[in-house]
Amino acid sequence: MESLPEAVLIQILASIPAVELVLVCRLVCCQWKNLVDGAALWILKCQQEGFTGAEPEEEAENWQTFYFLRKRKRNLIKNPCGEEDLDHWGEVENGGDGWKIEDLPGDFGKEFPSDGVHKYFVTSYEWCRKSQVIDLRAEGYWEELLDTTQPKIVVKDWYAGRSDAGCLYQLHVKLLSEHEDILAEYQSDTIAIPQDNAADWTELSHTFSDYGPGARFVRFEHGGQDTLFWKGWYGVRMTNSSVTVEP
């Protein structure tokens, strides 16, 4: 192995699972440690798995961290579209007739703008709220990464009214420490959708960055109601909520 050109050794190491590279291969010798800590090996692994392209990704300062973040990138919100009723959603406030799950497009509604979303949550004539708390460490993001790299935490939600009723909508997200201190917070304005609207789906997003060390949990809460106080489910509709940790 000592006689192999470095480029060939990098090709061999790139075939080894990433966790073993860091926990095992890095300890073999100084040469392997330098290769595992360097950029070339991780650029190659990113290319092998399709993680690079004509995006700012190519300017990543730490390719090893970039690789692990892309590998783990997924929606951390469970049951974002109501396919499992209200499972995984806690601290539910059921104002009026409470939450309901309906099939898209619903009465006086429109289809969602992308494939794969078939249901939505809908609110009633008093405030309905629900939340989810995401444990970042349980999802595989280690403390050193969260405290030192502080990867971007991107929050998105989609909302719409039905065309025959006005409604209100609000999104509130917090980054919490281990002891549930608030490290960063985003709260949207209370968004009012008038009666006789177009029933279009609108995406609301916020990116947390440079939030400081200590983030361990994300608390996601959204809700709303109708403004006509009609019995039933004429309030704001929500679906395809997401929280992702990104490079």
From TrEMBL:
SUPFAM superfamilies: F-box domain (SSF81383), Galactose-binding domain-like (SSF49785). Signal peptide: none annotated. The keyword Transport does not apply. It comes from the Eukaryota. The keyword tRNA processing does not apply. One of its GO terms (molecular function) is denatured protein binding. GO terms for biological process: ERAD pathway; glycoprotein catabolic process; protein ubiquitination; regulation of protein catabolic process at postsynapse, modulating synaptic transmission; regulation of protein ubiquitination; SCF-dependent proteasomal ubiquitin-dependent protein catabolic process. GO terms for cellular component: cytosol; dendritic spine; glutamatergic synapse; SCF ubiquitin ligase complex. Keywords: Ubl conjugation pathway. Gene3D superfamilies: 1.20.1280.50, Galactose-binding domain-like. This is F-box protein 2. It comes from Chrysemys picta bellii.
